[in-house]
Predict the structure.
Amino acid sequence: MASNSVTVVGLGPMGRAMTGALLDAGREVTVWNRSAGKDTELVARGARRAGSIEEAVQASGLVVLSLIDVDAMYGTLGEAPLQGRVLANLSSDTPQKARAAAAWAAARGAAYLTGGINVPPDLVGKPEATVFVSGAQAVYEEHRASLDVLAATDWKGEDPGLAQLFYQLNMIMFWTAMTGFDQAVAVAQAGGLTAADILPYAAGTTDSMSNFLHFYAPRIDKGEHGGDVDRLAMCAASLDHVVHTAADSGVDTGVLQAHADLYRRGVEAGFGADSSTRLVELLRRTGA
Ligand code: NDP
Protein backbone atom coordinates (compact mmCIF):
# COMPACT_ATOMS: atom_id res chain seq x y z
CA MET A 1 0.00 0.00 0.00
CA ALA A 2 1.61 3.26 -1.11
CA SER A 3 1.61 5.95 1.59
CA ASN A 4 0.07 8.50 -0.75
CA SER A 5 -2.67 6.18 -1.96
CA VAL A 6 -6.34 7.05 -1.55
CA THR A 7 -9.44 5.01 -2.33
CA VAL A 8 -12.58 6.76 -3.53
CA VAL A 9 -15.86 4.87 -3.15
CA GLY A 10 -18.79 6.40 -5.03
CA LEU A 11 -18.30 7.90 -8.46
CA GLY A 12 -21.17 10.29 -8.93
CA PRO A 13 -20.19 13.77 -10.19
CA MET A 14 -18.61 14.56 -6.80
CA GLY A 15 -16.61 11.33 -6.45
CA ARG A 16 -15.38 11.65 -10.02
CA ALA A 17 -14.28 15.23 -9.39
CA MET A 18 -12.47 14.19 -6.19
CA THR A 19 -10.71 11.36 -7.98
CA GLY A 20 -9.65 13.75 -10.73
CA ALA A 21 -8.23 16.21 -8.20
CA LEU A 22 -6.30 13.45 -6.43
CA LEU A 23 -4.89 12.18 -9.74
CA ASP A 24 -3.87 15.71 -10.69
CA ALA A 25 -2.04 15.96 -7.37
CA GLY A 26 -0.07 12.81 -8.15
CA ARG A 27 -1.88 10.50 -5.76
CA GLU A 28 -2.31 6.82 -6.39
CA VAL A 29 -6.08 6.42 -6.53
CA THR A 30 -8.17 3.27 -6.39
CA VAL A 31 -11.83 3.67 -7.32
CA TRP A 32 -14.99 1.65 -6.83
CA ASN A 33 -18.59 2.32 -7.75
CA ARG A 34 -21.76 0.30 -7.30
CA SER A 35 -22.76 0.62 -10.96
CA ALA A 36 -20.29 -0.09 -13.73
CA GLY A 37 -19.14 2.43 -16.30
CA LYS A 38 -18.58 5.57 -14.22
CA ASP A 39 -14.85 5.03 -13.86
CA THR A 40 -13.90 4.73 -17.52
CA GLU A 41 -12.45 8.21 -17.93
CA LEU A 42 -10.76 8.06 -14.52
CA VAL A 43 -9.08 4.75 -15.30
CA ALA A 44 -7.85 6.25 -18.58
CA ARG A 45 -6.31 9.05 -16.50
CA GLY A 46 -4.50 6.60 -14.23
CA ALA A 47 -6.95 5.54 -11.52
CA ARG A 48 -6.93 1.88 -10.55
CA ARG A 49 -10.28 0.07 -10.79
CA ALA A 50 -10.88 -2.23 -7.82
CA GLY A 51 -12.52 -5.53 -8.66
CA SER A 52 -14.52 -5.55 -5.44
CA ILE A 53 -15.31 -3.30 -2.50
CA GLU A 54 -13.00 -5.46 -0.36
CA GLU A 55 -10.15 -4.81 -2.77
CA ALA A 56 -10.95 -1.10 -2.81
CA VAL A 57 -10.85 -0.84 0.98
CA GLN A 58 -7.63 -2.82 1.25
CA ALA A 59 -5.86 -0.68 -1.35
CA SER A 60 -5.47 2.47 0.79
CA GLY A 61 -5.31 3.58 4.39
CA LEU A 62 -7.66 6.46 3.56
CA VAL A 63 -11.02 5.56 2.04
CA VAL A 64 -13.05 8.56 0.89
CA LEU A 65 -16.78 7.89 0.54
CA SER A 66 -18.92 10.05 -1.74
CA LEU A 67 -22.39 8.53 -1.68
CA ILE A 68 -25.96 9.77 -1.85
CA ASP A 69 -26.19 9.63 1.96
CA VAL A 70 -24.64 8.02 5.00
CA ASP A 71 -26.99 5.02 5.02
CA ALA A 72 -25.66 4.04 1.58
CA MET A 73 -22.31 3.39 3.25
CA TYR A 74 -23.53 0.35 5.19
CA GLY A 75 -24.71 -1.63 2.18
CA THR A 76 -21.78 -0.44 0.08
CA LEU A 77 -19.06 -1.52 2.50
CA GLY A 78 -20.97 -4.66 3.44
CA GLU A 79 -18.69 -7.05 5.28
CA ALA A 80 -15.45 -5.63 3.85
CA PRO A 81 -12.73 -5.74 6.57
CA LEU A 82 -12.18 -2.19 7.83
CA GLN A 83 -9.58 -2.80 10.56
CA GLY A 84 -7.01 0.02 10.57
CA ARG A 85 -8.71 1.99 7.83
CA VAL A 86 -9.73 5.65 7.97
CA LEU A 87 -13.12 6.29 6.42
CA ALA A 88 -13.63 9.90 5.36
CA ASN A 89 -17.31 10.04 4.57
CA LEU A 90 -17.97 13.21 2.58
CA SER A 91 -21.59 12.25 1.86
CA SER A 92 -24.31 14.62 2.98
CA ASP A 93 -26.53 13.57 5.88
CA THR A 94 -27.64 14.54 9.36
CA PRO A 95 -25.30 15.01 12.35
CA GLN A 96 -27.04 12.11 14.10
CA LYS A 97 -26.40 9.78 11.16
CA ALA A 98 -22.76 10.89 11.12
CA ARG A 99 -22.33 10.08 14.81
CA ALA A 100 -23.98 6.66 14.39
CA ALA A 101 -21.76 5.93 11.40
CA ALA A 102 -18.64 6.86 13.38
CA ALA A 103 -19.66 4.44 16.14
CA TRP A 104 -20.35 1.72 13.54
CA ALA A 105 -16.90 2.25 12.02
CA ALA A 106 -15.20 2.21 15.43
CA ALA A 107 -16.87 -1.10 16.26
CA ARG A 108 -15.22 -2.48 13.11
CA GLY A 109 -11.79 -1.11 13.91
CA ALA A 110 -11.89 1.89 11.57
CA ALA A 111 -11.46 5.59 12.30
CA TYR A 112 -14.08 7.91 10.87
CA LEU A 113 -14.00 11.48 9.64
CA THR A 114 -17.12 13.32 8.58
CA GLY A 115 -17.12 15.97 5.93
CA GLY A 116 -19.33 18.25 3.92
CA ILE A 117 -18.01 19.78 0.71
CA ASN A 118 -19.13 23.35 0.17
CA VAL A 119 -18.68 23.60 -3.60
CA PRO A 120 -20.08 21.89 -6.71
CA PRO A 121 -17.98 19.25 -8.49
CA ASP A 122 -16.36 21.64 -10.99
CA LEU A 123 -14.73 23.57 -8.12
CA VAL A 124 -13.34 20.53 -6.28
CA GLY A 125 -9.56 20.89 -6.06
CA LYS A 126 -9.75 24.61 -6.86
CA PRO A 127 -8.55 27.32 -4.44
CA GLU A 128 -12.10 28.41 -3.53
CA ALA A 129 -13.14 24.90 -2.46
CA THR A 130 -13.70 24.26 1.24
CA VAL A 131 -14.84 21.24 3.21
CA PHE A 132 -15.96 20.96 6.83
CA VAL A 133 -14.29 18.05 8.59
CA SER A 134 -14.79 16.64 12.07
CA GLY A 135 -13.61 13.57 13.95
CA ALA A 136 -10.53 12.64 15.95
CA GLN A 137 -7.95 15.41 15.55
CA ALA A 138 -4.97 13.04 15.27
CA VAL A 139 -6.68 11.17 12.43
CA TYR A 140 -7.54 14.44 10.73
CA GLU A 141 -3.95 15.71 11.03
CA GLU A 142 -2.62 12.44 9.61
CA HIS A 143 -4.79 12.65 6.49
CA ARG A 144 -5.18 16.38 6.20
CA ALA A 145 -2.79 16.69 3.26
CA SER A 146 -4.87 14.29 1.16
CA LEU A 147 -8.17 15.93 2.12
CA ASP A 148 -6.75 19.38 1.38
CA VAL A 149 -6.22 18.23 -2.20
CA LEU A 150 -10.01 18.01 -2.53
CA ALA A 151 -10.82 21.26 -0.75
CA ALA A 152 -9.29 23.38 1.99
CA THR A 153 -10.28 21.58 5.17
CA ASP A 154 -12.06 23.46 7.94
CA TRP A 155 -11.79 21.18 10.98
CA LYS A 156 -14.73 21.68 13.31
CA GLY A 157 -13.78 19.44 16.24
CA GLU A 158 -13.79 15.88 17.48
CA ASP A 159 -17.56 15.35 17.39
CA PRO A 160 -18.20 13.60 14.05
CA GLY A 161 -21.62 15.25 13.87
CA LEU A 162 -20.24 18.79 13.85
CA ALA A 163 -19.00 18.86 10.26
CA GLN A 164 -22.43 17.70 9.12
CA LEU A 165 -24.14 20.30 11.31
CA PHE A 166 -22.09 23.10 9.75
CA TYR A 167 -22.68 21.63 6.30
CA GLN A 168 -26.45 21.32 6.75
CA LEU A 169 -26.61 24.92 8.02
CA ASN A 170 -25.05 25.97 4.73
CA MET A 171 -27.59 23.80 2.93
CA ILE A 172 -30.46 25.54 4.75
CA MET A 173 -29.16 28.84 3.38
CA PHE A 174 -28.46 27.40 -0.06
CA TRP A 175 -31.72 25.55 -0.71
CA THR A 176 -33.99 28.30 0.58
CA ALA A 177 -32.10 30.80 -1.62
CA MET A 178 -32.34 28.54 -4.68
CA THR A 179 -36.05 27.99 -4.05
CA GLY A 180 -36.44 31.76 -3.77
CA PHE A 181 -34.75 32.19 -7.13
CA ASP A 182 -36.91 29.49 -8.78
CA GLN A 183 -40.00 31.15 -7.32
CA ALA A 184 -38.93 34.58 -8.57
CA VAL A 185 -38.24 33.21 -12.06
CA ALA A 186 -41.67 31.52 -12.16
CA VAL A 187 -43.38 34.81 -11.30
CA ALA A 188 -41.13 36.67 -13.75
CA GLN A 189 -42.01 34.27 -16.57
CA ALA A 190 -45.71 34.68 -15.81
CA GLY A 191 -45.12 38.41 -16.27
CA GLY A 192 -43.40 37.92 -19.63
CA LEU A 193 -39.83 38.23 -18.32
CA THR A 194 -36.97 35.77 -18.58
CA ALA A 195 -34.47 34.53 -15.99
CA ALA A 196 -31.86 36.67 -17.76
CA ASP A 197 -34.03 39.78 -17.33
CA ILE A 198 -34.08 39.43 -13.55
CA LEU A 199 -30.58 38.01 -13.11
CA PRO A 200 -28.77 41.30 -12.25
CA TYR A 201 -31.40 42.15 -9.64
CA ALA A 202 -31.63 38.63 -8.19
CA ALA A 203 -27.84 38.45 -7.94
CA GLY A 204 -27.73 41.93 -6.39
CA THR A 205 -30.29 40.93 -3.77
CA THR A 206 -28.35 37.75 -2.97
CA ASP A 207 -25.09 39.69 -2.68
CA SER A 208 -26.70 42.22 -0.36
CA MET A 209 -27.78 39.43 2.00
CA SER A 210 -24.25 39.34 3.40
CA ASN A 211 -24.72 42.87 4.78
CA PHE A 212 -27.99 41.87 6.43
CA LEU A 213 -26.41 38.79 8.03
CA HIS A 214 -23.46 40.78 9.37
CA PHE A 215 -25.81 43.40 10.80
CA TYR A 216 -28.25 40.98 12.43
CA ALA A 217 -25.98 38.15 13.67
CA PRO A 218 -24.41 40.11 16.59
CA ARG A 219 -27.79 41.51 17.59
CA ILE A 220 -29.32 38.03 17.61
CA ASP A 221 -26.48 36.69 19.76
CA LYS A 222 -27.09 39.51 22.24
CA GLY A 223 -30.84 38.78 22.26
CA GLU A 224 -31.59 42.18 20.73
CA HIS A 225 -34.64 42.16 18.46
CA GLY A 226 -35.58 45.83 18.47
CA GLY A 227 -37.79 47.05 15.65
CA ASP A 228 -35.62 50.10 14.94
CA VAL A 229 -34.77 48.96 11.41
CA ASP A 230 -37.48 46.50 10.47
CA ARG A 231 -40.78 45.69 12.16
CA LEU A 232 -42.23 42.20 11.92
CA ALA A 233 -45.66 43.66 11.13
CA MET A 234 -44.16 45.45 8.11
CA CYS A 235 -42.38 42.24 7.03
CA ALA A 236 -45.62 40.24 7.32
CA ALA A 237 -47.44 42.79 5.16
CA SER A 238 -44.62 42.69 2.61
CA LEU A 239 -44.84 38.89 2.48
CA ASP A 240 -48.60 39.13 1.87
CA HIS A 241 -47.83 41.35 -1.15
CA VAL A 242 -45.41 38.70 -2.39
CA VAL A 243 -47.99 35.90 -1.99
CA HIS A 244 -50.67 37.95 -3.73
CA THR A 245 -48.34 38.85 -6.61
CA ALA A 246 -47.58 35.15 -7.14
CA ALA A 247 -51.26 34.21 -6.84
CA ASP A 248 -52.31 36.94 -9.30
CA SER A 249 -49.67 35.56 -11.69
CA GLY A 250 -51.17 32.07 -11.47
CA VAL A 251 -47.98 30.75 -9.90
CA ASP A 252 -47.84 28.18 -7.09
CA THR A 253 -47.86 29.98 -3.72
CA GLY A 254 -47.19 27.04 -1.38
CA VAL A 255 -43.67 27.95 -0.32
CA LEU A 256 -44.38 31.68 -0.16
CA GLN A 257 -47.54 31.10 1.87
CA ALA A 258 -45.52 29.06 4.38
CA HIS A 259 -43.18 32.05 4.79
CA ALA A 260 -46.10 34.44 5.14
CA ASP A 261 -47.79 32.18 7.71
CA LEU A 262 -44.62 32.14 9.82
CA TYR A 263 -44.40 35.94 9.85
CA ARG A 264 -48.13 36.24 10.59
CA ARG A 265 -47.74 33.85 13.54
CA GLY A 266 -44.97 36.09 14.82
CA VAL A 267 -47.28 39.10 14.70
CA GLU A 268 -50.08 37.13 16.37
CA ALA A 269 -47.66 36.09 19.12
CA GLY A 270 -47.26 39.77 19.95
CA PHE A 271 -43.94 40.49 18.19
CA GLY A 272 -45.27 42.86 15.51
CA ALA A 273 -43.17 45.79 16.76
CA ASP A 274 -39.97 43.70 16.96
CA SER A 275 -37.43 42.92 14.27
CA SER A 276 -38.07 39.92 12.03
CA THR A 277 -35.14 38.25 13.80
CA ARG A 278 -37.55 37.57 16.68
CA LEU A 279 -38.70 34.68 14.44
CA VAL A 280 -35.58 32.76 15.50
CA GLU A 281 -37.15 32.37 18.93
CA LEU A 282 -40.52 31.45 17.43
CA LEU A 283 -38.87 28.83 15.21
CA ARG A 284 -37.03 27.32 18.17
CA ARG A 285 -40.23 27.16 20.21
CA THR A 286 -42.15 25.56 17.34
CA GLY A 287 -39.51 22.88 16.97
CA ALA A 288 -39.28 22.16 20.70
P1 NDP B 1 -24.86 11.08 -6.77
O1 NDP B 1 -26.19 10.87 -6.16
O2 NDP B 1 -24.81 11.43 -8.20
O3 NDP B 1 -23.91 9.79 -6.60
C1 NDP B 1 -23.49 9.33 -5.38
C2 NDP B 1 -23.07 7.88 -5.34
O4 NDP B 1 -24.01 7.25 -4.46
C3 NDP B 1 -23.02 7.03 -6.60
O5 NDP B 1 -21.84 6.28 -6.53
C4 NDP B 1 -24.22 6.11 -6.44
O6 NDP B 1 -24.00 4.83 -7.00
C5 NDP B 1 -24.29 5.96 -4.95
N1 NDP B 1 -25.62 5.58 -4.47
C6 NDP B 1 -26.80 6.20 -4.71
N2 NDP B 1 -27.78 5.56 -4.06
C7 NDP B 1 -27.21 4.53 -3.41
C8 NDP B 1 -27.71 3.51 -2.57
N3 NDP B 1 -29.00 3.43 -2.24
N4 NDP B 1 -26.83 2.59 -2.08
C9 NDP B 1 -25.51 2.66 -2.39
N5 NDP B 1 -24.98 3.62 -3.18
C10 NDP B 1 -25.83 4.54 -3.68
O7 NDP B 1 -24.19 12.20 -5.85
P2 NDP B 1 -23.00 13.27 -6.10
O8 NDP B 1 -21.80 12.58 -6.62
O9 NDP B 1 -23.52 14.45 -6.83
O10 NDP B 1 -22.76 13.72 -4.60
C11 NDP B 1 -22.16 12.87 -3.64
C12 NDP B 1 -22.31 13.49 -2.27
O11 NDP B 1 -21.73 14.78 -2.28
C13 NDP B 1 -23.78 13.66 -1.86
O12 NDP B 1 -23.93 13.35 -0.50
C14 NDP B 1 -24.05 15.13 -2.11
O13 NDP B 1 -25.06 15.67 -1.26
C15 NDP B 1 -22.69 15.75 -1.84
N6 NDP B 1 -22.47 16.99 -2.56
C16 NDP B 1 -22.79 17.05 -3.89
C17 NDP B 1 -22.64 18.24 -4.58
C18 NDP B 1 -22.98 18.33 -6.03
O14 NDP B 1 -23.10 19.45 -6.52
N7 NDP B 1 -23.11 17.22 -6.76
C19 NDP B 1 -22.15 19.47 -3.90
C20 NDP B 1 -21.78 19.27 -2.52
C21 NDP B 1 -21.96 18.07 -1.89
P3 NDP B 1 -24.53 4.46 -8.49
O15 NDP B 1 -23.59 5.16 -9.43
O16 NDP B 1 -24.46 2.99 -8.53
O17 NDP B 1 -25.95 4.99 -8.59
Q: What stands out?
A: The pocket of NDP is lined by residues 10-15, 33-35, 38, 66-68, 72, 75-76, 91-92, 117, 120-121 (CB under 6 Å). The first helix runs from residue 13 to 24. The mean pLDDT is 96. The chain has two domains: 5-159, 165-287.
